[in-house]
From TrEMBL:
This is Alcohol dehydrogenase. One of its GO terms (biological process) is formaldehyde catabolic process. Its cofactor is Zn(2+). It comes from Chenopodium quinoa (Quinoa). The keyword Zinc applies. Belongs to the zinc-containing alcohol dehydrogenase family. Class-III subfamily. Keywords: Metal-binding, NAD, Oxidoreductase, Zinc.
Amino acid sequence: MELQKNHKADVNTPKRITAGKPLHCKAAIAREAGQPLVIEEVIVAPPKAHEVRIKIICTSLCYSDITFWKLKDFPGCYPRIFGHEAVGIVESVGEGVDEVVEGDYVLPVFIADCGDCNDCKSSESNLCSKLPFKISPWMPREDSSRFTDLNGETLFHFLSVSSFSQYTVVNVAHLTKIDPSIPPNRACLLSCGVSTGIGAAWRAANVKPGSTVAIFGIGAIGLGVAEGARLCGATKIIAVDINPERFEFGKKFGVTDFINPNNCEDNKTVSQGWGKTIVLGVDKPDAQLSLLSMDVLLSGKSIKGSIYGGLKAKSDVPILVKRYLDKEVRLDEFVSHEMKFDEINKAFELLIEGKCLRCVIWMD
């Protein structure tokens, strides 16, 4: 499929008389760990209280989908509908939902932003305490699924989104209404990886003009960090990666210097008493960070974990959308491939082989 041009979202889809009723649609199901997805007809239940059923327009593939798709043991569980970077249109809403209405253009996000709890009201955190982040196979408010196959078997959710389905049900705390002027094949990128990178520089690290930023690993998230650092006014953006081919590509996002750690001599001359290390992305469930206590104490540096780059979806994502529409934020360059839904396994292969940055999948 040829690379799509920027298409404005069609939010004027004729109303269907489907509200309150189960919907039949196609979904890509992972029935076993690491095995190709199977596109099947599934049944999507109507939304319950505080829930919204949306029609997915585009979904992009994130390496977190690959990481959990490979897991044989919990939190891996099957059969499951993966996918968590997406954009769609509200098809129907459940009881108590007044934030969005049918026809709204929305972005689902894997972390909640309820707007009511102390954490959501605070500028110090983007982690909701009412609906805390967890890698659960269920809906956020109750241990149940909105998906079944035609044999009645329960299909598990993924990261509160499950966007590898033409329709999905999402808690309203995981939805952000956005400007329909942004094309769906660009909007979906803000649902996870690219926003995580930009947010890490903008919100988590609070990069100041004139700063020096080093990025270890410049895949999609790392390039997002570079973009965020550029927007914040960093004057030196150093990419640290073992693949020198990524340097030329990184220049598009403001990377000024490249370091291959395999070709470096040991150099311990570093700044003292200041500096931040921001940890991003999803690692294996049992992965560990090893630090010497005295190194942390005597250097005066800080290390901080950052989920979704410290962004609050409902307030920060619309800002990123506007900055893209104002031609300040670069999103186009992140899309290396665009494919039809029935090519989703090919998209998996490209990402596993390191041959794509972001692959956008059109659901229709």
